[in-house]
Design goal:
Layout lengths: L22 H23 L3 H12 L1 H6 L19 H4 L2 H30 L3 H7 L2 E5 L3 E7 L16 H17 L3 E6 L12 H18 L7 E6 L18 E7 L11 H13 L19
Parallel strand pairs: 3-4
Antiparallel strand pairs: 1-2, 2-5, 3-5
Helix pairs in contact: 5-6, 5-7, 7-8
Length: 302
C-alpha cells in the first residue's frame, strides 16, 4: 500500500467431508454381498435333498462333477429359458408303456360312458334304437373311434347328400357333450364307397369332405369347441371298411377319432384360434358343389 503496510494473503485449506469420499461405497458393497450370500443360503436350504447333495458335491469336488455331470442339465432354471421336456418323453420304455396303458383305460371308460348315454337316449324310441345299431364304438391302436355307418338305405345321410338327417342329429347331440368334456383331440373323417358319383364335377372326394365338415358343424352346435379339432378331412374311397367289397354300403361312413395322448397331446385352450375360426365361419358360407341333376333353362327377362 502507499503507507508501506505489508499485504498478508491467507490461504485456507479445505478438507473434503467424510460423506463426499468413497469409503461408504466399499461398506455398502460388503453389505450387499453379505445379503446376497444370506439369501443364497436360505434358498439352498429350501431345496430338495437331491439338489442339495448336487450342490455340495460341486463345491467339494468341482472337477469331479465336470467329469460325471448330473442327469439333470439344468439345476437352476433361469427365467426365459426353454422348459425341460416332459418326463414322459424321456422316460423308459416301461414308463411309456404304463402311460399308454392308463390312456387306453381312460378311453375305454369314455367309450362306456358314450354307449351308456346313447342307450339311455334311445329308450322309448324305436327309431333311435334302430339308428343306434349303426353306431360302432371301439378302442383301436390309434385311439377311440366312433363310426356312423350307413346301411342299404339312408341312415345318417340321404343318398348322395351331405346333410345329416334330423334324427341322426338328435343322436349325435347326445355324444357331443361327452366329447367336449373329455377335452381330447378330435379327428373327423368322411368315407364313401367306390361307386362313382353321378356327374363328373362333384365326386366322392367332395362328398366325403362335405360329410366330414357337416358332422363337425353338428358336433360344434351341440357344444364341442373349435379348438378341440385337429383334423377334418375326407378320404373318399381310399380307406374302405370292407376292402373285399368296394361297393358295399358299409364303406359309406363318417368317423370321429380321439387319438391316444402319446400321438396327440391333450388340448389346451387357444382363445385366439377359436375367435379367428368363429369369425371366419361367420363370414364364410358353404359352397354347394353338388350338381343340379334336373337342370332347368333359365331365361333372363328384361
Amino acid at each position: 500500500m502507499a503507507d508501506g503496510t505489508p499485504i498478508i494473503i491467507k490461504k485456507k485449506k479445505v478438507m473434503a467431508a467424510g460423506h463426499h469420499g468413497g469409503s461408504w461405497k466399499v461398506a455398502y458393497a460388503d453389505f450387499v454381498t453379505a445379503m446376497m450370500a444370506f439369501f443364497m443360503v436360505m434358498w439352498i436350504m429350501g431345496m430338495e435333498p437331491e439338489k442339495k447333495s448336487m450342490i455340495q458335491g460341486y463345491f467339494n469336488d468341482p472337477f469331479g462333477m465336470l467329469k460325471s455331470p448330473p442327469k439333470s442339465q439344468t439345476v437352476f432354471p433361469m427365467p426365459g429359458s426353454p422348459k425341460p421336456k416332459d418326463v414322459k418323453g424321456n422316460g423308459s420304455a416301461g414308463e411309456k408303456q404304463l402311460d399308454h396303458k392308463r390312456d387306453e383305460e381312460s378311453l375305454a371308460k369314455l367309450a362306456e360312458e358314450i354307449e351308456k348315454e346313447l342307450k339311455e337316449s334311445a329308450k322309448g324310441s324305436n327309431e333311435l334304437s334302430a339308428l343306434l345299431k349303426h353306431v360302432e364304438i371301439t378302442v383301436t391302436e390309434k385311439g377311440l373311434r366312433l363310426e356312423f355307418v350307413e346301411a342299404a338305405g339312408s341312415v345318417f345321410f340321404l343318398s348322395g347328400d351331405y346333410h345329416i338327417r334330423p334324427l341322426a342329429e338328435q343322436l349325435i347331440g347326445k355324444v357331443a357333450p361327452i366329447l367336449a368334456k373329455s377335452k381330447r383331440s378330435i379327428i373327423v373323417e368322411g368315407h364313401t364307397d367306390a361307386e362313382p358319383y353321378a356327374g363328373g364335377i362333384y365326386t366322392n372326394w367332395d362328398l366325403s369332405v362335405d360329410r366330414a365338415r357337416e358332422l363337425r358343424r353338428v358336433l360344434s352346435r351341440f357344444g364341442v369347441p373349435l379348438n378341440q379339432y385337429v383334423e377334418v378331412t375326407g378320404k373318399g374311397d381310399t380307406m374302405l371298411k370292407v376292402p373285399d367289397d368296394p361297393y358295399s354300403f358299409m364303406n359309406r361312413r363318417v368317423t370321429v377319432l380321439l387319438p391316444f395322448l402319446s400321438a396327440s397331446d391333450s388340448i389346451h385352450d387357444l382363445p385366439k384360434l377359436s375367435i379367428k375360426e368363429e369369425i371366419e365361419g361367420a363370414f364364410r358360407q358353404p359352397v354347394e358343389l353338388k350338381p343340379d341333376l334336373n337342370p332347368k333353362l333359365h331365361v333372363d327377362e328384361h
